[in-house]
């Protein structure tokens, strides 16, 4: 019985220790950021790997999400005789929720895992220790550029996701179903507010970018230097990032809706 | 991958992202249509605002001329004080009438301004004295029922 409680306590303690270590990593990234900004082409390289290479999956999934929203929205709205409101529905759903959240989930799966596996393998093959031997800080050289690349990439990807999704909804609603084009756009413009909807979605995507990248970096940096350790760390990146994104989404939304 | 190619791809990516953001702001959002920049505030007291909310439109002749800025409850008069921000381009006479209307049968509520005939215009922080409350559906129905009942008694 005592053994059981010991196990629970140990598990909680190790979680809290990891949280503390992640926070420490976060602050050391911030303090080394000025060094990595001096060599900004490292960050540019990481933007290429996390952003440009994620474009295809983001654009394709956004287009399909938008089309499904259009179809499902039309099916429900036409029961109430207000199928013109489909533009508002698609735009608000994408800009406020689906854009940032789905992008963050895809980002965690596409870019987060790559970051974790790369850093974990660097650690396993002792490249990070070698850098330290050469008096090159691995945080300034490896970790911080990936962090800033993630923060820059996520809002851009989320904006692309929302825009492409709205175009997907447009393709379903206007040419396929035959909703009036003018009503589609004008109702959307009348009901989507820049300061409340678009800026809030943008803030969400920045926060998700920070959360996903820091989790991916920490899991890689903290991974046991074995093949198994790296694979487990990669799995944990996806699980933790997804849970963090969904949890943060609720918290942020409840803050933003208190107007 | 050489550096020029890398820079080009990242440049394309960042440009795409910014274009998408601009598209959201211009085509999807109301940044272009909502060009109300400089506004002035006008208050009005209502005994019942119904479902009026902050940021609801203020319309005159159906045209959006401003937005509801804030709604507070006044414990002296036990009334709601509604502050509206109105586009500076539009001026209204001092005896303007403020009504709370409902868009459609169950739609959102908005303030309708009906201009009066006073030669002086409303200035910033003025108060609209003539107001009409929101129509409460339950009141209407009960009034209707009472009138029907009294008719039957006759």
Automatic annotation (TrEMBL), chain A:
GO CC aspect terms: ATP-binding cassette (ABC) transporter complex
* Alphabetically ordered keywords of this record: Cell inner membrane, Cell membrane, Membrane, Transmembrane, Transmembrane helix, Transport
List localization entries: Cell inner membrane
Under the GO molecular function aspect, what terms does this record hold?
A: phospholipid transporter activity
Pfam families assigned: MlaE
Q: Which InterPro entries match?
A: ABC_MlaE_roteobac, MlaE_Permease, Permease_MalE
Main localization category: membrane
What highest taxon heads this organism's lineage? Bacteria
Its job: Part of the ABC transporter complex MlaFEDB, which is involved in a phospholipid transport pathway that maintains lipid asymmetry in the outer membrane by retrograde trafficking of phospholipids from the outer membrane to the inner membrane. Probably responsible for the translocation of the substrate across the membrane.
Return the similarity comment: Belongs to the MlaE permease family.
What is the recorded name of this protein?
A: Intermembrane phospholipid transport system permease protein MlaE
- Gene source species: beta proteobacterium KB13
From TrEMBL, chain B:
MF-aspect GO terms: phospholipid binding; phospholipid transporter activity
Q: Where are the transmembrane segments?
A: 6-26
The reply to whether Mitochondrion figures as a keyword in the UniProt entry is no
Q: Which UniProt keywords apply?
A: Membrane, Transmembrane, Transmembrane helix
Q: Where is the Mce/MlaD domain?
A: 39-116
Top-rank lineage group of the source organism: Bacteria
UniProt-listed PANTHER family: INTERMEMBRANE PHOSPHOLIPID TRANSPORT SYSTEM BINDING PROTEIN MLAD, INTERMEMBRANE PHOSPHOLIPID TRANSPORT SYSTEM BINDING PROTEIN MLAD-RELATED
Q: What is this protein called?
A: ABC transporter, periplasmic substrate-binding protein
Q: Which organism is it from?
A: beta proteobacterium KB13
